[in-house]
Design a protein that fits this description.
The structure is a homodimer of 260-residue chains.
Chain A (H helix, E strand, L loop, with lengths): L2 E5 L12 H11 L9 E5 H7 L3 E3 L7 H10 L3 H9 L1 E8 L2 E6 L4 E3 L23 E3 L5 H16 L4 E8 L8 E8 L5 E2 L15 E2 L1 H13 L8 E5 L24
Parallel strand pairs in A: 2-8
Antiparallel strand pairs in A: 1-12, 2-12, 3-7, 4-5, 5-6, 8-9, 10-11
Helix pairs in contact in A: 1-5, 3-4
Chain lengths: 260, 260
């Protein structure tokens, strides 16, 4: 079966307090997509963060001594480093431009996923502040948000669907960012193929597929990076059946991590 | 524009010496797909390795003293470890069941990408050897193979297409394998969005998208892991224009690697 990823058209700009499930439902209508059982909506982290009001202005941040020390090493604004530390459990590496951390949500990423670009200095939250000073933090609880959006879409459509919130992460050994799951509901994070026989009847060795991350990468490709105009992707043909996955399924336990 | 990934149907089992470009062309016909400019064919590493005859039987391998020493630490067959060493430039980590190496092709992966499962003990290459002893090595030069397949398909179709050879890799900090590019031709590996303005006119910070890896993950999702029956995926709607990418575009230079 084919896998089809379609960007929702004319998705509105999102502001703090906006109702994302409603926006998605309306945009599905404008895109002439009628939901079916097994469809998945993939949602860019940025619009979830904006809807949750996870926007901070640097002028409101007081850096700690540790943030000031780290900022000198990574050549960043100490107030931005302070936000990175507040959003993180542990600092893994520091180099100019980059702090690699374990985020409070459990994954390893650069700069705690805090983003400069595309933050709108909308009237509700900003006065005459430096428009470059707005930063967007990751959503508070992306699994819960994915679940809430999924339930709203299921109630509206009468179909069983999935919801996946994604961000773009760098990798340890490869260049370029790829989309990864940071919150999910109604689809599996990992699919365990251990023990299923292959074509010749041998038992497969350990194979766990990062299915939600593979879908995140696929949707990220369709979203692009600069295109805030397509923050939601409709997916049809996801090859695994619905299941209650969660972000933590995809995170390697610290004691199995060979690369800290 | 939508991205559509369609598995080619009735793809034959591949044996050493087989003509993959011909198989793909024929399977496109059976799948009633007419190639268009910009289409991409994503090909599983396994069938490239098989066509190249990269099949080795453990009984033909003499382990070195270093392989015997490492095999004790990782609890693997010393002959298999010998093959891992021959296919690698450097050993990064060793733990029971896994050797993390820099492969001779330049990427970091587990066990040099050497695979047990789905190797057919076909009459041409095997006698009465233990059928579990066959191992499949990665292709010799996947960029070159992707280029050759692309050129054959372009000559047959009169269209400009891309070819991408993929494998599944684990990640440092996340569970589950995801598809990654190991050879490509006619599409970009990385897409550089540095300096393009965002919706509000700000300059985006450094953003390089691992576009070929995102497509590899998408296609891997459609292939599944156990399904050797769908080793080639047809892609329509890849959002970036054709360009001569290569595997090395996607590899982080060793001196920028924070996690060795």
């Amino acid at each position: 079966m084919a896998l089809t990823l379609t960007p929702l058209t004319e998705f509105p700009l999102v502001r703090p307090g906006d109702d994302l499930a409603l926006f998605i439902w309306q945009s599905l209508g404008r895109s002439q997509i009628v939901l079916q059982d097994g469809d998945i909506l993939v949602i860019a982290q940025k619009i979830v963060s904006k809807a949750e009001g996870r926007i901070v202005h640097l002028s409101h941040i007081e850096p700690s001594p540790r943030a000031i020390e780290l900022a000198a090493r990574c050549e960043k604004d100490p107030r931005q480093v302070e936000l990175v530390l507040r959003e993180s459990r542990e600092v893994l590496r520091v180099r100019p431009g980059t702090i690699i951390v374990e985020h409070r949500l459990g994954f390893v990423c650069a700069n705690a996923g805090i983003d400069h670009s595309n933050v709108s200095p909308v009237a509700e939250i900003g006065e005459a502040l430096d428009p470059e000073g707005w930063l967007l933090l990751l959503p508070l609880d992306p699994d819960a948000t994915a679940c809430a959006i999924r339930q709203r879409l299921e109630a509206a459509s009468g179909c069983q669907v999935g919801a996946l919130i994604i961000d773009s992460h760098g990798r340890a050994w490869r260049l370029g960012t790829v989309g990864v799951a940071i919150g999910l509901s109604g689809l599996p994070g990992l699919v365990d193929l251990r023990g299923e026989p292959d074509l010749f009847g041998y038992k497969l060795r350990i194979t766990q597929v990062g299915a939600a991350d593979e879908l995140a990468a696929a949707a990220s490709l369709v979203m692009g990076q600069a295109a805030e105009g397509t923050p939601v992707i409709h997916v049809r043909g996801f090859p695994y059946s619905a299941r209650e996955g969660r972000l933590s399924d995809l995170l390697r336990p610290k004691d199995e991590d060979l690369f800290r």
